[in-house]
Amino acid sequence: MARVRRPGWLRRPTWLHLPGRSHPSGRPGAVVPRGNPLDRFGLRDLVAESAHGIAAKPGRLILTIIGTVLGIGSLVVTIGLAQTAAGQIARQFDAVAATQVLVEPATSQTQGGRRTTGRIPWDVEDRLSRIAGVESVGAVGAVSIGDVTITAVPVNDPSVAASAPPQVLAATPGLLDAVRGEVVTGRFFDAGHDERADRVVVLGARAAIRLGVNRVDRQPSIFIGERAYTVIGIIAGVQRRTDLLDAVILPVGTARADFAFTALEQAHGTIAVGAGPVFDAQAALALDPTTPEAITVEVPPPPSALRQSVQADINAIFLALGAVALLVGGLGIANVTLLSVRERVGEIGLRRALGAKRSDIGNQFLVESGVIGLLGGLIGAALGVFVVVAVSLAKEWTPLLDTWVVLAAALLGGVIGLAAGTYPALKAAGIEPITALRGGT
Predict the structure, then answer these.
(1) Collapsing DSSP states into helix, strand and coil, what is residue 372?
(2) Measured between alpha carbons, how far is residue 214 from residues 14, 201, 300, 391 in Å?
(3) Which of 267, 268, 223, 265 is closest to 248 using CA atoms?
(4) What is the C-alpha separation between 14 and 25, in angstroms, rounded?
(5) Which of 103-117, 154-168, 252-266 has the highest mean pLDDT?
């Protein structure tokens, strides 16, 4: 027959010194101190009793850890998706905004309005391209064509309702790359067209639709007033200057020769990631060495600062949800542990009567609640990692999650369990044997 192991406080009686009684060793009047080390409720007994208490009702255990699982899982998912989303946003920022720079003439406020105090030189591309980290540069400015019309046919039909003509812009050859545009059909003009002042134009996609031009293989022309200009290309996909899609774009040399174009308004550029500070320090000096304050330079913030800002904003929004779920889980552990104490009052009283100390009772319930919390933390952290990876795969993202976050989240479940079980453990430790055996609480 298998032997049933009993806790230490049941295996040996605790002897007290009583007058006229003898110690089992045979020595009259010997005193055996209460709390013999051989009779203590040891760690092995504590673990065994706690495990029995936890596994006594599996259904209640599952319901108890659900709150903690949801709370820890929410925290891991929140932090993981925040880090992943911040990485994706920062990567997209690096690909577009972090590499875009803008240079404009400075303006000042006067009584008659705003007045331009600087100018962008015609050789802006050559000057800015010498700065380290600059990949492409292009400049653009509005061209005044007066009251002339822009049509795709040379015949002026009075019966046709007049419409506002597309905007006419003058641009340098590098503008398309600088604003991240793409050619739908044909090509963009080059430095040769600019130097020769060739009468060629490039149309934005929406301007081409308005003028009825959809292909350039037959060298179609548009008329600005009475002058004919050959359409050599149609562009789209402009990310930095969407107004180019509604414009007729001329080479700067052509605009200067035909329309007395006098000034460029903006210079756009793309730079390598991290080259912003260098460009900011040198661009104005490169364009106007004598009065660099007459040039305004806009560069993007460092990508690391943006990434931290984005991640902090996302964390601030969603961590509150995880904290609420975690609070609910902690309250669930506290309620269930307190209910367990009330249901086991008779057991607690019997154990106290047989010699168990207050600390033995309190430690048992504290360990039970801590193990429940730790179990919920481990399951919640695992589920959180799974959700982060699943969402990242579905979105074709690269999942980002610090290892210490997962470990800390799992341990946080145990801490929540210990905190939630403190009051029930104190209440259990305070139960007196006589009160418990009489049926009180």
Answers:
(1) helix
(2) 103, 14, 36, 42
(3) 223
(4) 14
(5) 252-266
